[in-house]
Write a structure and sequence with these properties.
Distance between the termini: 11 Å
Strand order of the largest sheet: 1-2-4-3
Order of helices and strands: EEEHEEHHEHHHHHH
Largest sheet: 4 strands, mixed
Helix content: 55-70%
Strand content: 5-15%
Radius of gyration: 37 Å
Number of helices: 9
Number of strands: 6
Length: 290
């Protein structure tokens, strides 16, 4: 069953001291366009995450957001004792030199100076990476479920319209015989008006056959039916078929256009216009099929 490129999925992974929130949104696109926003601690794994997302999502404009909700103060700044001591000695020497008696504001002053406070950079451990991998897989599964649900709606709409095109093409048949007879009569009448005595009946039949062969739409109907059958087979496949379906739709459109150009009949032209209308609506839906 086809899938839509539009989707949404999210999950939350829980660790003893933090929660990891993963959110994925996707829209239609000709190719895969990944926009990944993640905390610095996960940057070392960005390439691997992109590979997982590419394999799981395949196509679409995809935005992935990973955020961390810390449950403890795991990044409390630490005092850099060596730097603090260095600043203190300098201030003390300067204070003695300038005969400043009070040292009471030294601590407050030193804590505002560069490099006095330091924050240890957290490192990604194996347990957290495994949790993140599982969460990413769950989020991908979630958005793909959404895509399948959207794809089911697309499937129903598109197959109904393809069936309508098939039905309309079959409605052409009753008009074909009367169309041929009408063309023959019109040609004969025009020739009679021009010069009835000079008409060579054999030549007339040959020219008429040639002309009618040029207007024959049998091949177009057969090819149109074959393309419709192939479309129905392809759309039922359990793999991404959006691009293949788009090519088949082009072929269906080509046969409908040729049928319309050769119709030379108002009733058939009406059916062709209705087929084109259905085809345009299918093309709009096709833009969103994975």
């Amino acid at each position: 069953m086809i899938k839509s490129m539009t989707g949404f999925g999210k999950t939350t992974c829980e660790l003893p001291e933090k929660k990891i929130h993963i959110e994925i949104k996707s829209l239609n696109s000709k190719q895969l366009d990944l926009n990944l926003r993640l905390p610095t601690i996960y940057r070392e794994k960005e390439l691997e995450m992109r590979n997982r997302l590419s394999a799981g999502l395949q196509r679409g404009k995809v935005d992935i957001s990973i955020t961390i909700e810390s449950l403890t103060a795991d990044r409390v700044p630490q005092i850099n004792e060596q730097v603090f001591e260095h600043y203190y000695k300098q201030l003390s020497q300067l204070s003695d030199k300038l005969q400043i008696s009070s040292h009471s504001d030294y601590i407050r002053t030193i804590l505002t100076l560069p490099e006095t406070l330091k924050v240890e950079q957290a490192e990604l451990d194996a347990e957290e990476w495994k949790t993140l991998q599982d969460g990413l897989a769950e989020a991908i599964a979630s958005i793909n479920q959404y895509r399948r649900q959207e794809g089911a709606a697309l499937y129903d709409d598109i197959t109904a319209r393809i069936h309508q095109i098939d039905t309309l093409s079959q409605e052409v048949v009753p008009f074909e015989k009367q169309r041929i007879e009408r063309i023959k009569s019109r040609i004969k009448e025009n020739l009679d008006e021009w010069n009835e005595k000079n008409i060579d009946e054999n030549r007339f039949e040959q020219e008429l056959i040639y002309y009618l062969e040029k207007l024959d739409i049998t091949e177009e109907k057969v090819r149109l039916k074959n393309h419709i059958d192939y479309f129905n087979e392809t759309i039922a496949e359990d793999e991404p078929v959006g691009k293949k379906l788009a090519f088949i739709i082009q072929e269906i459109g080509r046969e409908i256009n040729t049928l319309g150009s050769k119709a030379n009949d108002a009733d058939i032209q009406r059916l062709v216009i209705r087929m084109k209308d259905e085809l345009e609506k299918i093309k709009e839906q096709m833009l969103n099929i994975l």
